[in-house]
């Protein structure tokens, strides 16, 4: 038996295939679009960031990180998805806060008034 066949047999067991065809797997996989989009948006202009939406997504990911560990069996893939999203949304929130409330922006607004 070749090493490749042993490897594929160990990966494609009935238990693994059964898991892949559940919402326990596909829910988190489809959810990964949210943190991927947030990470891609880190390079865009901070004017495009919605502060309320970013705050909502921060809370959403915190709640679902907790939920992913409360369900039985624990869903570590869902936890990972929301952990990555939490980091990305916190970065977006920091960018939004810095852009809207930094001293440089306030000084620029005051200079425009004069």
TrEMBL record:
Membrane topology (UniProt): Multi-pass membrane protein
GO terms under biological process: pyruvate import into mitochondria
Keyword tags: Membrane, Mitochondrion, Mitochondrion inner membrane, Transmembrane, Transmembrane helix, Transport
Subcellular locations according to the entry: Mitochondrion inner membrane
Entry annotated with the keyword Membrane: yes
Domain of life per record: Eukaryota
This protein's record includes keyword Zinc-finger: no
Any single GO CC term annotated in Swiss-Prot or TrEMBL for this entry: mitochondrial inner membrane
InterPro entries: MPC
A Pfam cross-reference name: MPC
First-listed, main subcellular location of the protein, grouped into a coarse class: mitochondrion
Transmembrane segments: 49-69
Its biological purpose: Mediates the uptake of pyruvate into mitochondria.
Family, similarity comment: Belongs to the mitochondrial pyruvate carrier (MPC) (TC 2.A.105) family.
Protein name as catalogued: Mitochondrial pyruvate carrier
């Amino acid at each position: 038996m070749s090493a490749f066949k042993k490897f594929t047999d160990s990966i494609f067991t009935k238990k693994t295939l059964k898991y892949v065809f559940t919402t326990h797997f596909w829910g988190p996989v489809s959810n990964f679009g949210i943190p991927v989009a947030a990470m891609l948006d880190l390079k865009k202009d901070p004017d495009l960031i919605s502060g309320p939406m970013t705050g909502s997504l921060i809370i959403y990911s915190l709640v679902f990180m907790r939920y992913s560990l409360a369900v039985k069996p624990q869903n570590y893939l869902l936890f990972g998805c929301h952990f990555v999203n939490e980091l990305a949304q916190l970065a977006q929130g920091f960018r939004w806060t810095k852009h809207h409330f930094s001293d440089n922006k306030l000084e620029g607004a005051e200079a425009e008034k004069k």
